[in-house]
Design brief:
Elements: E1 2-7, E2 11-18, E3 21-29, H1 36-47, E4 58-62, E5 65-67, E6 72-74, E7 84-86, H2 87-95, E8 99-103, H3 104-115, E9 124-129, E10 133-139, E11 142-144, E12 158-159, E13 162-163, H4 164-168, H5 171-177, H6 181-190, H7 192-217, E14 221-225, H8 232-246, H9 250-255, E15 257-260, H10 266-271, H11 274-278
Parallel strand pairs: 1-4, 4-8, 9-14, 14-15
Antiparallel strand pairs: 1-2, 2-3, 5-6, 6-7, 9-10, 10-11, 12-13
Helix pairs in contact: 6-7, 7-8
Length: 286
Amino acid sequence: MNIVVDLGATNIRAGLESQGVISDETSIILENKHSLDDTLSQILEFLAPYTKYDIGNIGIGVPSVVDTANGIVYNAVNIPSWKEVYLKDVLESAFGIPVFVNNDVNCFVLGEHRFGLAKNYQSVVGVCIGTGIGTGIIINNQLYAGINCGAGEIGHLPYLDHDIEYYVAGTFFEKQYGISAVEASSRMDTDRAEGQRIWNGYAVHIAHALMTIVYTYDPEVIVLGGSLAKAFPYFEKPMRAIMEKKFAYPGSLRRLKIFQSADDTISLLGASLLSCQYSGSLIDHK
């Protein structure tokens, strides 16, 4: 049995994983993000009740680049106090349990590849879209994170007058239309024509982001996760139409699968696989 954790900029989720099943899942709001000591104390207090069980290890995904060998988190997104956090040392010192730390979207794609919609594919990109955008990459059944655990940070690539994240993250709707992403989804119920116009506008940009991924990694499948992926039915059709019109290699695009994640626990399941990563043994599960 393992403790699995998904640390976000807003919430912390945790649960117990055993044989590919998540139990006892809970979440809390991450408070006082400007204080490193306060956030670490909150995490320790939150995880402490799980340690009463017979735990093999703790796997934790964080919104950041990570020194995965030493479990050091650098410049966590939207957690101002997390500039250089020796998270592995802190947790192992507190609980006496082996700890494995990696990027949160890497956990997402590991979960999809082992337990989810991408389990029958060898080359996969997971894309999480919410307050930002991040990707995790599986190539030939192996996680590819790059030397600094920063591979796939496509949100920072220049695009139009800003970068990709500016146009595909949730804040796009406030900047472009003066409404939240939640309100954009609600418009599909209250004024479908206007709502679809908004989502058609978003589709232009997410299509560009996915084409960038395909040009770079040429995966068999892309799995979309995060809060904005829940709106996939609203932007899928116009997004695909734009990709079909603009992508240079139609045959490649026809073979590409694009799925919406179907399991809200998939990142936690992926965190349970981090110990396999560090032993060099993952995941050719076929």
